[in-house]
Amino acid sequence: MAGGITQEELQLAARNHGMPLEALRHDLTPRGLHYLLIHYDIPAVDAAAFRLEVRGRVGRELSLSLADLRERERVDVPVTFECAGNGRAQLDPRPVSQPWLVEAVGTAMWTGTPVRAVLEEAGLLEDAVDVVFAGEDRGVEGGVPQRYERALPVAEALSGEPLLAYAMGGEPLPPQHGFPLRLVVPGWYGMTNVKWLSEIRVLDRAFDGYQHARAYRFMRSDDDPGAPVSRMEPRSLMVPPGVPDFMTRERFVAPGPVRLEGRAWSGWAPVEAVEVRAGDGPWEPAALEPPLGPAAWRRWTFDWTATPGTHVLACRARDATGRVQPDDPPWNVKGYANNAVHRVTVTVRDA
Ligand SMILES: Nc1nc2c(c(=O)[nH]1)N[C@H]1C(S)=C(S)[C@@H](COP(=O)(O)O)O[C@H]1N2
Ligand SMILES: [Mo]
């Protein structure tokens, strides 16, 4: 499957767009340029009739309107999202699903209220194990009819970080990003951030729904149960310098000094270093700016002197756990977490 993509992959790619890499220039991804991933259809949710139901292994069930949620403690946090399938289309053989190259990323200011206080108010029973977050959207996946559901272990749900978000960039969520309410879990891959959220269900056992048991696992073969996908691996991307060729998107740059720039993030620990390499040259440190927040990307810059010829520019990030972007990450069946070094081919010539 190294060859051309199928009509079905194209159908997915036309619905689910990435962030144009030039938008890495913005601290917060402008509305509409944030990437988008929707497994089924965007559901129509009536905000006036909306309730968030909290049930299961709780002392007291809750039913909260949007007004109830807006009256609670309000938090604004910049959070970088990345789809777990980002980089999938660069794997060989290519896993067939949404064919992302490297652009399934974005950072937004999310506004909402902490999950923890809502769970504390409901009162988790002592046997609580997993907290399921269920969306209003429905579909069939792998032959299994379902609504989109993901869970967090109780300790993560109570960590204080996960938010019930009703605004993005200071405005109500747009339909495609989960109107009127979504979960936001800093540091985890995108699938965790359940959109069109309408139910929180506390279980006394590990959640075994489709999006845990079958999807979002690192599998080496079709019958490998695999380990679950959770936090984002470190990644850096660069704004492609110069101007593109329309079809190939190869870059053309004039000779002389060029300021390269990009962003880097990791869901495991702060990014500590970004390095840049031109052609077969050495890896050299980029300058890092402070992160926008503990769960958002950092800007980096690197001054490069462009000399005539064709060069492959590369960047890689390292986080405080020591995780580094690999040249070639290990392959897995569903194509998750391909955080290979970002490479951009540039031809340097006079304009
Ligand atoms: N209800 C629901 N939530 C969902 C999804 C979905 O299909 N349905 N897609 C998930 C996936 S795979 C990703 S990567 C993120 C994407 O969020 P965004 O479209 O707001 O960028 O939403 C997640 N939340
Ligand atoms: Mo995703």
How many helices?
5
**Helical amount:** under 10%
Structural class: mainly beta
- Give the SSE string: HEEHEEHEEHEEEEHEEEEEEEEEEEE
| Widest beta sheet: strand line-up | 14-15-22-21-17-18
What count of domains describes the coordinates?
2
CATH superfamily of the largest domain: Oxidoreductase, molybdopterin-binding domain
| Average of pLDDT | 97
The beta-strand count equals 22
Question: Could you please describe the fold and organization of this structure?
Answer:
With 351 residues, the chain is mostly beta strands. The protein has two domains: 222 residues, Sulfite Oxidase, Chain A, domain 2 (Alpha-Beta Complex), CATH 3.90.420.10; 114 residues, Immunoglobulin-like (Sandwich), CATH 2.60.40.650. Helix content is 9%, strand content 36%. It contains five helices and 22 strands. A hairpin with a 6-residue loop joins strand 14 and strand 15. It starts with 6 loop residues before the first helix and ends with a strand. The mean pLDDT is 97. The site of the ligand Nc1nc2c(c(=O)[nH]1)N[C@H]1C(S)=C(S)[C@@H](COP(=O)(O)O)O[C@H]1N2 has 19 residues, from strand 5.
Q: What are the salient characteristics of this protein?
A:
single chain, 351 residues, mainly beta, Sulfite Oxidase, Chain A, domain 2, Immunoglobulin-like, 2 domains, five-stranded mixed sheet, 5 helices, binds the ligand Nc1nc2c(c(=O)[nH]1)N[C@H]1C(S)=C(S)[C@@H](COP(=O)(O)O)O[C@H]1N2, binds molybdenum atom
